[in-house]
User: Fold these one by one.
Assistant:
Number 1:
Amino acid sequence: MVRAVLRMHNGQRETMLAGRAGTAVPCLPTLMFLSTDLILQEWRMWQKVGDVVDGTVLPGAEGIIKPLYGSPGWIPLWSDPVSADYVGLDLGPGPKGTSGQIIDFGRDEETTSSAPATSPN
């Protein structure tokens, strides 16, 4: 499903993305849908963080999401245009989670949470 949406839309309109211009489209309130170029750019930036065990998860998400600050398995799809906070795919979930579940993460996210699992295809 994610691939199909990116093939069809691949982000749109120029907008601000955490203080710099980028191609994205508002589709969730206060968030911008990232283009494939920006997804890769933001993901590479978070690779520098790696699996940092310095986060917490919201009650009810224990075991579903790993209690990390950042992870290479987290793929940003939407971004807050004024901060480095994201909603994206979790391809490295906790033991009770599902690969492809939707989570929130980022610089200003002290705790992470998940939405019901979805398939990343």
Number 2:
Amino acid sequence: MTPSAPPPPPWEPGPPWASDSLREPSPPQRPVPTVYEQLQADPGLQRLRAARRRPVFAVAGAVVGLYLLNALLAGEARGFMAVGVAGPLNIGLALSLIQCVTTAWAVWWYTRYARNFLDPDGRRLRAHVEKRENTR
């Protein structure tokens, strides 16, 4: 009885300096997304960004509009702005004071809006991300 020959060794790609044409191409590796990339893709962050932007543009537009109206009237309607309202207070000064009050109101409103609507959503999103980080 003759012993059987050992099976041929499996094909190996060869040394690293061998021709690339002999190697099988490896599938492309997708990098693992970072926490930042995962957070950017999170729909909760998209909602939070939209909730932050939406009302701010309206309030900022009103404050800037009042400023531009005040500047336009001061430059073009000097007689109207000089009309007295009460004692030394004229329309120009009254509009400037109203502008200061509306700017302070806008800052107060946004602080309150952020505290009541944005901060809770931000805390929930942070807890979600930290929970996902701890499970890794």
Number 3:
Amino acid sequence: MTFFIRRTLRYTLVSIGCALLHNVVLIVMDASGASVIGCQVASAAILLPVGFILQSRITFASERSWRGFFRYAAALLTNFPVVLAVLWLARDQAGLSMWMAAPISSVVLFCWNYMTSTWALAPRAKGLPAHV
């Protein structure tokens, strides 16, 4: 249990940094007139390599490789439809500014990303599930 708590704390700290960077990218791109899809593509282009390096090194202490990066990228690309739906609902339907919609999307993605990042990066021992 202690291992899980320590890893969750490391994940939380790295994720806060990534979420702040994500929000800055969304807000700056939105202010420049980019569409919601353009905002998310820019964020993904920046955060996939940054998140992979930080999560693999700090959170999961896993070996970095191209295979690991592609696995992480595949897992995190599942965020794309989720964040688009959240931004569409919050920004386009509820009329919230990107200043409000971006942090809402970050909160929604926090738990989802923990599950997908664990699947992609956590070292696996024989007979143990990835989340241990």
